[in-house]
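Tokens for Alanine dehydrogenase. Go.
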Amino acid sequence: MIIGVPKEIKNNENRVGLTPAGVAELRKHHHTVYVQASAGVGSGFQDAEYEQAGAVVLPTIADVYAQAEMIIKVKEPIQEEYALIREGQLLFTYFHFASSEELTHAMIERKATCLAYETVERADRSLPLLVPMSEVAGRMAPQEGAKYLEKPLKGRGILLGGVPGVKPAHVLVLGGGIVGTQAAKVAAGLGAQVTIMDISLNRLRELDDIMPKNVVTVYSNEYNIREAIKTADLIVGAVLIPGAKAPHLITRDMLKTMKAGTVLVDVAVDQGGCIETCKPTTHEDPTFIIDDIVHYCVANMPGAVPYTSTLALTNATLPYAVKIANLGWQEACRQNSDLRLGLNVVNGEVVYKGVAEAWNLPLVSVDSVLEPAHV
């Protein structure tokens, strides 16, 4: 298979879809890999390293798209890339279609085949290609929140861990999954008082067993959320419904009950956000203020630590990429149920329920787009 790795052009996105080690692995299986010049520089990988691993370095993004049967990326294509995508071309990347109607319609119009990292799902309901970036974003959330709690950045002027004689900040984490767990660990490690809320009692029991004493668990419902936000200094939104829009757990009217300078970090923003007033921001301009509440809603948080993020992501994606390249996407999806669930759009038809429901689009059965294997 011919594989293309373009340079990410989303604002301050320094990750890359494939490392030189990944190129070497694909070359072992006799696949051709084209990498755009300087695609890996932001993550610490030079063009010469890709060439030594067996890739062909091409000068422009248009060259890469024109040559490749499968594009391996990190973030969804942005408007400048839409026209480069060919009918039937496979894109293997994060899409988060349920948060962008424009992107969804663009991929339908281009008749692309979109295999989304975030909906590749194992039988145990775990999301192997979302987990590494959820771990990074979860650990970053208290780090970013602590920074924006500083008064010069319009926060409350509170040190997350406090000092002897002065109580620490109160951190509220909405969601006890990967992001929430990592956020709570880091916040607790910095000395904050942490509350995690979730709707799963079993998950709350697990968290209660493994978390330190400065972390408490509370069942998540609207009443409890409304009470908790009154005393929170930092709120981390960490709610995920795979492939679908996140529910709004904090609504606009709730902001008025918070303390001025409270910081909201909505890690779910790339799936529509679990805080109603959040809209995607960038590393270049990460925050905005509504009703004296600081909103941090960067949609690609792990892009700020690209070396760590690229290695963590490609550790997870490479085995799947090799399988797709070896078998072709149709046969790979027939043989591997994880990948089958990753299919969101196939040749311009929506095959993932969460995406169809988000934008009221016709849903086509995956079976109908996976042609039977030839005997």
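The two ends are 21 Å apart (CA to CA).
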